[in-house]
Amino acid sequence: MSEEQPPVPVIIRPSENPASRSGLFRLLVIPFAIYCLWMILTALFEGDHRLFLNADPSGIIVYTVFACIITGMILPVYCIRESFITGAVNMFQIGFWPVRRTFYACFLTTFFGYMAMVLFSPFGTDQSAFGYAFLLLLPTAIASVMVCWVLLGTHVQALVRGGGTVLSIAAGSLITAWLFCLTSFVHSPPVHLQPALVGFLVLGLAAAVFFFAVRDIYAASIFVTFGLTFVMADRIGVSGTQAAMPAVYGSALLVFFILIGIHLYFVRNFKTVKSPV
After folding, report:
1. In angstroms, what is the C-alpha Rg of the chain?
2. Are 27 and 155 in contact (CB under 8 A)?
3. For residues 158 and 30, is the Cβ–Cβ distance under 8 A?
4. Helices marked H in 2-126 — which ranges?
5. CA distances to 229, 245, 249 from 242, in Å
6. Which of 173, 213, 239, 243 has the most CB within a 10 Å radius?
7. What is the pLDDT of residues 32-74, one digit of tens each?
């Protein structure tokens, strides 16, 4: 039996020149191409079929697998892996932290999200409807966090890192907020377009600030799921809820375990350490 290979150390240090041709291709072109592919598949499997309004069980599963898992989660891992090797990003920047820190971040995010639901729920006092919408949108939220912030946000930061911390965070926040806002066009069509765009832009800005401040992918996913449940409430149908529940529960559990699997993959294969200055 062959010996287990130790994790590849990822040293926090200046990466290759981001302005080089290879740097621009790896930090900008490839992440943006993944974003575009994710948008296209979301439109095909969810928006064009008004999936959240119709709640088709088989459609929910297909959308989750192809748009959320394969394109929104697994493809970004390949790009992030290459950036790990070159030193452009590290484990903490993409939001994977020890269990205790993640637990506290998720607990506080869930607590304040629940309080917001109790006070301002778009479904009124029907908490079961809010819970259904939350689980239905969880795969979309995790894929959004993976593509918009874990992938594009951190890579935009790496691209402009030479301008300082303030510039890199500002650029990452503003660009990813607008890119997230554009996703409103590929989801089930809203009742009123302008309020929907404003809601997505506000949520995108809030989620960008939250992610870059907290740097926890699990807490950011919870934050975005609560936000999507508010801004997409008018795109979620209530008919056929019971028939769709097995697919909704299964899809939510599947993306959650895939996210844990991605976390374990990075933990087993990479190790972030600080190099002496």
Report:
1. 19
2. yes
3. no
4. 21-24, 30-42, 51-54, 57-63, 75-86, 99-120
5. 18, 5, 11
6. 173
7. 999 999 999 999 999 888 888 888 899 999 999 999 999 999 9
